[in-house]
Every structure is written in structure tokens, then in C-alpha cells.
Predict the structure.
Amino acid sequence: MSDDQKLPLDGRAALSALQAHTPARIALGRAGAGQRTQTHLTFQLDHARARDAVHDALPVTELAQTLTARGWPVLTARSRATTRTDYLRRPDLGRRLDAASTEALSVPRVPSDVAIVLADGLSATAVTANAVPLLDELGPALTGNWSLAPIVLVEQGRVAIGDDIAEHLGCQLVIMLIGERPGLSAADSLGCYVTWSPRVGTIDANRHCISNIRPGGLSASDAARQIHAVVANAFRHEVTGVRLNTVLSAASRPLVT
């Protein structure tokens, strides 16, 4: 008899209710002195999914085709990390554009209000699964209020590469969608970083982060509503990050309404 089967009925019901509300590994029980076989196999599967998410390549061509079919103009770029190994060992290389991308993005263009950047980050899986549904929700709210630069798809990119891109495109604000570090309960979590006046060297305190965008976390519609609220407040107050929170707190206004 396993540990949870030894519990009284009300205790088992409480554990079942708790397990139904979280993917966290709780009340797993044991078989003798070890884990149950199913627990061990599930752990191995989730660990493999997390490793795959880190090492899988971003399907740039397929993503570009999907976005183009939805009416989004698309550009592609790469960071200075030439391999995935370089990317993982040298975070600094993932924060800047390589020479070819810098030249391509430096072509004179009409300045836009907002740059949207998609980067693989630490989970190409997250971008592949969640970026397009999020943009489907977010696009109408953005295009109705601000001018948008072409979406830029970046391979081997870190959060800060969005600053480099937006600076070359001449945008006032960047929305960076990037794969988050996968965990053992979620390998497909997408993060969004909104930065006002993005420039190379911008510190993270000047960004707004909306995290855990995925079907099992923050839905695309809720994430789009939050991102739109951040962008609207950023253009109103010309700031993001800690300073925007301070401004809104002083005015006693919530960030999202």
C-alpha cells in the first residue's frame, strides 16, 4: 500500500484537490523506500523536454511564413553567438547583433513607434508554440494606436538584443518576446519584456516583464491585455520598469485595468 493510500479519506481528498490546482510535484508518494515508477518516468520525460527546449533551433522560415500570411512584415537577424554552445556559455554574445544583421537593419527606414522582436532565448519551443497566438491577440490593439516596425526574428538572442534592434530601427519602444528558461513543469513558457527608449546598455530595472505566457499559465488574451496596458502607460509617461511603477503608484493607478 502506498503512502497516500494509508491516509484517511479526507486527507486523500485534500491532496487530490491540491494536485488538481498545480503542476508542481507534490504528494507524489513512494513505493517502499523509492519513487514510484510513474513518478520517475514522468520526471525523466519533463527533463528531456526541458533540454530539448534549450537546444532546439528556432524555425525561422516557418515562423516568417506564418507571420507574413497574417499580414506582418518580417525581418530576420542573428546575434554574435555563432553556435548554440557559444550562446549558452557567452550570454554577452547573445545581447548584440552580428555584423551582417547590423548592416541589414541599418538601412534607412521611416521611424516607427514600436518594434516587436521574437527571439529563441532559452526555449525555442515557447516561441514556436505561443508567439503567433499572442500576436493574434495583441496586434489589433497595437496597430490601432501606434506605428509598428517589421517584426524581427532573432536566432541566438538574449533580452537585451531587442535594445540593439530597436535602436537601429529608430523605435521609441520595444516589445521583446523570448523563450524563458524551461523548468520541469513548463518547457514552453514565453516571456515579454517591454522597454521604453531602448538603447544598448539599458538596464533590466528599466524594463517591464510579463512572464509565463502559455496555455498552462497566462493565456494569450490575458497577456495581450497586460502588454497593451504597459505599452499605453509607457507612451503616456515615457518610461517603463521600476520608474513606471513608481509613477503609477504615486498616482494610485493600477497598471492593468
